[in-house]
What does this fold into?
Amino acid sequence: MPADAQEPTPGSTGGPAPAQVPRTPGSTGGPAPAQVPRTPGSTGGPAAGTAGAPAGVIYDLGYRRYGGVRLGRGHIARSLFLHSLRGSYGIGRGARAKILPFAVLAIMCAPAAVAVVIASQTGTQEIRYDAYPFMFQLLIVIFLAAQAPEMLSRDLRHHVLPLYFSRPLRRDDYALAKLGAMTTALFALIAIPLLVLFAGIAFTLVSKPGELWTETTELVPGLANAGVHALVLAAAGLAISSFASRRAYATGAVAGLYVISQVVADIVRSAPSQAVRERSGLLTPFDLLEGFKQWALRGTAVEEIDIGGAGWLYGLVTVALLVAAVAVLLARYRRVAA
It folds into this structure.
């Protein structure tokens, strides 16, 4: 700017202000020219009779539209699934959140490790793969009652569901991602001890290919049984937990359902009628799934459960329970925070 062209100071009565050079947003030219003072509500040009008023300035903040790849609904659902799965074992959270899930997993693996030692010394296997969930059902219930409410209650209590649903993520996607995460977490809880047991026994059978193949054929139904347990229990646990925004209430409801149904089933099992005793397992989740295993997977029955000729009924009730639980979970999240 020439030396003799000076910017008028507020209140000066000198000559007219120098002409302004237009500037478009994002321009990279020289320094912005001095601005003519404008009062709020003015429509351009110098304001009349406003000498000494503060000048208004328009700044170019450089906002830009996002031009990258939009990952979309599928990526959001996968991210929610992984986040929920990690959270079920306390990964990415504080140390206190990891204590219970990893303690339960360690206790679940301990009998498998002991069984490996016994098998290496005696050559006999004390634990069957397909009986593992029934034997340690209490630990599975503890994990489910603690982690299923944790997976849902925070979002309900802090009212963040509208933020999720403002994105391309649909309500069914949210519910199914949570169901997938809980199912995977439960499957890992049951399947990891089975793999520990199989790995230890297979190490002792390396020189016996025939026995190793037999051991493998016994493991596969055990893993299938673990998958059925994980899916049905996860659906039931999440369906119950979705109605409580307080974690303590949901935990009590999940644990209470297990305890009450087990007591009722034990009472019915003492009935004099054989047909009634065979159907008593329909009243509690783990007995029901044990009967489904015997009917659908041709697994060996545990001593406590005798389904007789009612295997088809166990299969029908298991499928009905799964469908009902998933339907309740989806219906709940179609209405919540609407």
In short: Residues 73-252 form one domain.
